[in-house]
Amino acid sequence: MELISLAIDFILHVDKYLESFVQAYGMWVYALLFAVIFIETGVVVMPFLPGDSLLFVVGAMCGVGLMSYPLAVGLLLAAAILGNQCNYTIGHWVGPRVFQWEDSRWFNRKAFDSAHNFYEKYGGITIIAARFMPFLRTFAPFVAGVAQMSRARFTFYDVTGGVLWVGGIITVGYFFGNIPWVKLHLDKIIWAMILIPGLVVMWGAWRSRRNAKQARAA
């Protein structure tokens, strides 16, 4: 419980932790941030790291001169792109080995073909939109790999989504992160960044399930 409490406190007060780290270790903060973003996007079992709020706080720190805006954007964009590539590669490698026996209880050829077709047709917008949704951004590239989405297509949307996510949120933090009202309510803003995308995903899943039931009933 103490570890969970510490993790929640870190997520909600990432600005204070990050500022302390910058003051204590200087340039090493960039290595830490690179690792956090890479692990969140590149390791499918680590979806709970604070990607959105971390990028926002980084932007705010760049805005007051504690960090370099070009260096932060460049490094964290590389981390986000490479993380997704790693996650895709894991899914691409694991999928065929898990599903190598067609009559295995782990394999469903129809489901696999549907997933592959979906990612070839709609995977681009899925990869981009998932960047802004906690948890989904960790699983989307892995599923794209499992579904055997083509590497070239995945890479194009990986880079596009990474630029919008990293560049966009850091820039918003740069211009708005140091406004007194924002700093005062930063914990609430972080909760909103976590909960609102989650609610959107839950609503979408519920609506999709309802439509599927209605289609079967018809």
Could you characterize the architecture of this molecule?
- The protein is mainly α and 218 residues long.
- The protein has helices at residues 2-12, 14-25, 28-42, 51-63, 69-98, 109-130, 136-146, 151-176, 180-184, 186-217.
- The model has no long low-confidence stretch (mean pLDDT 79).
Give the fraction of residues assigned to helices.
Answer: over 70%
Percent of sequence in beta strands: under 5%
Backbone CA Rg = 19 Å
Order of helices and strands: HHHHHHHHHH
Name the structural class: mainly alpha
Shape: globular
Overall pLDDT: 79
Q: Count the strands?
A: 0
Low-pLDDT runs: none
Please report the distance between the alpha carbons of the first and last residues. 48 Å
Largest sheet: none
Discrete helix count? 10
Summarize the structure.
The protein has 218 residues and is mainly alpha-helical. The protein has ten helices and no strands.
